[in-house]
Structure formats: C-alpha cells, structure tokens
Amino acid sequence: MYESIQETMYLILFWIIIGVIPGVLTIWNIYNFFAKKPRYKRIIAWLTIWIGGFLYYFLYEAGFQPSGDWKEAVYVYETHYSISSQYGWTVVVPVILGLIALLLLYSVQADRQPPLFAAFLIAFVVIFNIISIVFAIQIGKQMKSHSDGFVNMFLYLYQFNLFVLSVSAVKNHMKEQIKLYQARRKNAESTKMAWLYCRIRCFERYPMLVFACLFFIIAVFEILFILVGQGADAPVKAFTDTADWTFSQQTPPPPMESSGHYLCTVAAGGHKKIVKPLRYGTRRGQTIVVNRQLCIANAFEEWIQEKFPKIHKAIRNFYDRYGYPVSQHITTPLRADVVYFLMKPLEWVFVVFLYFVDTQPEERIRRQYLLKNHIKN
After folding, report:
1. Could you tell me how far CA 98 lies from the centroid of its own chain?
2. Is the dihedral of CA 150, 56, 248, 319 positive or negative?
3. What is the SS3 assignment for 283?
4. Torsion of Cα atoms, 131 then 78 then 256 then 280, to 10°
5. Is residue 344 predicted with pLDDT exceeding 70?
6. SS3 at position 75
7. 336 in Cβ contact with 270 (< 8 Å)
C-alpha cells in the first residue's frame, strides 16, 4: 500500500513537470491569442519561453543524443549534430536575436518603442519563426524513427507555442502602432513627419515597413557571412552539412559500439584499500570486480527503470554517452581513486534516495551484478 502511494505521488509529480505545466501554458497562450482582453500575457509568455526552452533542451538532448559533426563516428545510440558546428552560428545568432525581440515585444509597451525599432523587432521575430519551422522539418526524420511519441509531441508543442506567441505579439503590436501613427500624424510638428505618418496609417501600409526591415536584416547578415568567409549560403549549409536529419546531405562514418563502464573501471583499477572491492559480478556476460559504490549506483538505476522506464532510457543514454569516454582516461590506480572520491557525494545521494523510496534498500543493493540481475547495462 505504501509503495503504491509513493509510486502514484512520483507519477503525479513527473506529469506535473513534464505534462501539466506545458499543457496549461499552451491552453493559456491559445486563450490569450483569441481573447479580446488577454490575461497575464507577459508573464505567461516569459514562462513559456524559459520553462519550455529548458524542457525542450533536456528532452532533445536525452532523446536524440547529438554527439558530433557528420565527419565524426558516434555510438549507435547517438545522432550527429542537427546543425553543423561550422555554420551553426549563422542560425543560432538570428534565433537568439529573434527570441530577444519577442521578449521585448511582450515587455515594452508600443508607445515606448520608436516606430523603426518596433519594425526591426517584428522583422527579427519573423526570421526566428522561419528558422524554427525549418528546424522542425529538419528533426522530422528522427521523429519518425523515435520510439517515444511523447518526446515528439513536446518538441513540436514548444515550437507551436512560440509560433502562437509570435503571431499574437506581432498582431497586437501592429494594432497599437497603427493607433499611435494615427495620433502622431495629427500632432506631427513637421511636414515630413506628417507625410510619413500619413503613408503608414493602416495594416496594408505598416507591413511594408516591416518587410523593408526584414530584407535589410537579411542583407546585413548575408554581407557578414561573406566577410567572415562562410559564404552567402551559410544558413543553408548549417542544415545540409549534417548527417541523420531531413536536410542532411553528408554520409557519416559507421557507428561505434559502446563498451566500458567507468565505475566498473574504478572498482577494478583503484587501490583496494580505497575503492574497497567486495566480490566478482557479471555484466553483459563478462566477469567484473564489484564494490559498494557500483552496486548503489546500479540499484538506483534499477529503481528508476522499474518506476519510470522513459526517464531511465534518457539517463541510460546520458550515462553511456559520457561514461565510456571517462573510463578511457582512468588508466592508473590513482585516477581510479580520484574518480571514486568524486563520486562519493552522488553515492550518498543515491543511498538516501533508496532508503527513502524502497522498503528493502540493502537487498536491492546486494543483488546487483549477480547472475540473476534485474537490469541490463
């Protein structure tokens, strides 16, 4: 009964963080988009961008495990970068500027922004959304082969929210700017300014200024790309000079098979008085040296695997990605001892966690790496 209540609480907490919060923000953004009087639109926009961005990055990294450019060999469970590192800045810089522009549109009232500055902000937001749509198509190939549909849904859900926020911000800002233009035209002090406000007095005219700013920004970026030697087509190469993705045009080296486990290396290679090996165990059909630290870490992972298989998959991929490279550097007993001490705080956290959630924590720890092991790693 107690374990059932605990498991239910963990599931509720997990879905609040991963499912409920994004769902509530999405519904609120859609409501604000259609409502005549949006509620807390500035706060909701900021929460959507920052919380959604954090979860998007976590799920993207955990789900796809991007680990190198197309020229590099990666492990079978990893993918290559979806954006070329050589040309990536030509995409990242406009994206960052677009997000800043979107935040400014939600943070600063229209009457406090100069007309031309506001037009540039909208132009940057348009560029950002174009790149966002292209990136959504870029990752589509891996989405089809990805086994976790929830990850697919959330990644596209975040991009959908950004699109809704962008359209809402541009629409509302243009309405406010038109009203300001009409008021300023009446009070214009000079003939030239009155002529300008007269020309930009409706939605049919104001977008022309935005598009002029848009083409100006694109021209400046193109000139900058050429000056730094990237070429005018650098943003296109950022997507095509890759492997594994929709627009990829490169053929990568064959994938590598992973092996090794840095805590196993520590248990086998450290000084016995320090790492305290307990016994021999079995891992993937091979005999290994086992110490308590290794058993505790594996017991923690086993519990996660039983309760939250999807989270375990992400943790397992992360561990496989970084554990093997670390094990390659543990070549002396001294290095193994250092890693053992560095892992001590995390070991204590795992122990406290197991004693908090498991009715028989020591039994779970004891059975790790026996012939009848519950977890295959």
Report:
1. 17
2. negative
3. strand
4. 160
5. yes
6. strand
7. yes
Distance in angstroms (rounded) separating the CA atoms of residues 2 and 357: 10
pTM for the predicted model, two decimal places: 0.65
267, amino acid identity: A
Top mean-pLDDT range of 41-50, 66-75, 311-320? 41-50
pLDDT tens sequence across 186-222: 665 555 555 555 555 544 456 777 778 888 888 888 8
The runs of H, that is alpha helices, within the chain are 2-15, 21-34, 41-64, 89-107, 115-138, 140-145, 149-186, 191-199, 206-227, 234-240, 262-269, 272-275, 292-307, 309-329, 333-357, 361-366
Domain positions in the chain are 20-240, 262-366
286 sits in which H/E element = strand 286-291
Per-residue pLDDT of 260-301, as tens digits, reads 455 665 665 677 778 888 887 777 666 777 888 888 888 888
Chain-centroid distance of CA 285 in Å reads 36
Of 165, 162, 148, 160, nearest to 59 by C-alpha is 148
